[in-house]
What does this fold into?
Amino acid sequence: MPPFATPAPNGCALELLDICCTFRSREDAGQRYAAVSNTTLRINAGEFVSVVGPTGCGKSTLLNIGAGLLAPSSGAVRVFGQALHGINARAGYMFQSDALMPWRSALENVMLGLQYRGVPDGEARSQAQAWLARVGLGDFGDRYPHQLSGGMRKRAALAQVLALDPDIILMDEPFSALDIQTRQLMENEVLDLWAGPGEGRRAAPRPEPTPSGGGRAAAGGSYARKAVLFITHDLDEAIAMSDRVVVLSAGPGTHPMGEFIIDLPRPRDVAEVRHQPRFVELHTQIWSVLRDEVLKGYAQQLKTAA
Ligand SMILES: Nc1ncnc2c1ncn2[C@@H]1O[C@H](COP(=O)(O)OP(=O)(O)OP(=O)(O)O)[C@@H](O)[C@H]1O
It folds into this structure.
């Protein structure tokens, strides 16, 4: 019996177990390309885990498998101990390109997921408004996506995800298109929201818990942190934000090469934490593993392009 046939270890939100994923090769339709090989990745409830790896190694493939958008060729996915079949309903997603509908205002975009869940319009509207306020867009609910800056669209997308109160948040390079200052603001914003009331850099009020979203409370009434799987190219971002950083090898057949606990104190300011000696130490350790993979990935890209 494979080791993952047993129930999940206590507290695991998402488990990717011995995952392999092959695609029909883009260069030769008769061949298969092994994108991911024998990869096991566990994310505990409330844990913030970043996955870094060279371009094209298979990071998004793993995230899509965790989201249930893509079925692995072999291996298993468990969500809070249950086998995943189809879409991962306990997860919210934030991708590189935002998923805002251009014909709906920011408020209507945030309301949409709640309406799909059957939340009555009036309640969906007030929850969406509360989340927009929480991400600093309280006065921008009537704006359409094209009337918002890149950073504001990201805030709206974040409100869209958080309004649904998922237990797991899957983020695929959500801020890579932003300028560095906006990016750092957004990273800090995400950390504050993830940390919960009174735990972030500034103690901020949250919307009142409601049965259908807007800040579900854990048993006992306290805020339950979400598990986050964060995909990024940027090692600084990964270290600044995470509890744990997983390094993937270059493809084909990507798999974890190393795993690092980020023991920097929280709350963190992503711009300031980079100056701490421990940050520099961790960066040096992780980069020593990542660097060769990045070089291999780059060489492969050149070969493919030739
Ligand atoms: N549907 C598909 N069909 C064929 N090949 C695919 C498919 N999806 C992904 N691949 C290939 O699998 C590999 C991994 O892709 P993936 O997008 O997961 O990498 P990534 O690490 O997220 O890339 P990036 O760093 O550029 O975002 C790549 O070589 C890609 O070309």
